[in-house]
Structure to design on (262 residues):
């Protein structure tokens, strides 16, 4: 069993328990449910956009605890002030130290910034959760879903006016894409071995539809990385650990974007 299999099995148990506690009707009563969502697609294609999607996460399965003292309001508001194009907030607690509380706090603090709910999405109930807690878009991991499952979750997301970012890391997973997908993220980290190779983005990027917005994920740590990927058609760059491992993630992000624009 891979770490991804383990996470997905645990997630199914979590979702089943959540359904027992909070009904869909209760989720729909959230004050966030009626809000107009922000578009990450539009943000990434705004002239002069940094393209950086900065992530708030305190731990990961591969690295363990990254930053247990980080506070989501302080960090995400600092990211936005630094000039990010979007935010990513982990909501998986067991493996990534995330929470819905963090997502909601990031939403309250940054009302006009696109926010991705970063989690392992397997069930339609989770799409309603994302909307109810203030997300603007969801992540669908191709390795975790069949083509039909991805289509159904994408259709529901669009009904709820959420954008969809699909994550792929092999050629075969690209076949699962459907025309309603808004953005494709190429994960440079192999989800089975957790090894990282930025060349994965270059290789798979050439196989994606020409007009598709490309986002590179994992292992990005240098200005050279971003410039190299941008020259190869990438418009978004998901970065978390590079900032979160520092004492001041927001300042690290600001310094990085300043150098990038220079």
């Amino acid at each position: 069993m891979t770490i991804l299999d383990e996470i997905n099995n645990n997630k199914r148990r979590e979702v089943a328990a959540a359904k027992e506690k909070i009904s869909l009707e209760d989720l729909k009563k959230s004050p966030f449910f009626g809000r107009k969502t922000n578009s990450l697609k539009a943000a990434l294609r705004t002239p002069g956009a940094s393209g950086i999607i900065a992530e708030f996460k305190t731990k990961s399965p591969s690295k363990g605890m990254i930053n247990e003292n980080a506070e989501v309001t302080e960090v995400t508001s600092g990211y936005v002030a630094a000039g990010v194009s979007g935010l990513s907030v982990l909501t998986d607690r067991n493996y990534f130290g995330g929470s819905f509380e963090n997502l909601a706090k990031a939403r309250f603090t940054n009302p006009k910034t696109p926010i991705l709910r970063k989690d392992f999405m397997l069930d339609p109930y989770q799409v309603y959760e994302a909307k109810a807690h203030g997300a603007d878009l969801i992540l669908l991991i191709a390795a975790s879903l069949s083509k039909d499952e991805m289509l159904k979750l994408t259709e529901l997301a669009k009904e709820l006016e959420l954008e969809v970012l699909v994550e792929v890391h092999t050629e075969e997973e690209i076949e699962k894409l459907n025309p309603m997908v808004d953005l494709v993220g190429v994960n440079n980290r192999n989800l089975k071995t957790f090894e990282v190779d930025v060349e994965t983005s270059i290789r798979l990027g050439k196989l994606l539809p020409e007009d598709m917005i490309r986002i590179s994920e994992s292992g990005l740590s240098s200005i050279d990385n971003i410039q190299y990927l941008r020259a190869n058609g990438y418009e978004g760059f998901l970065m978390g650990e590079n900032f979160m491992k520092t004492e001041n993630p927001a300042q690290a992000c600001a310094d990085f974007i300043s150098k990038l624009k220079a």
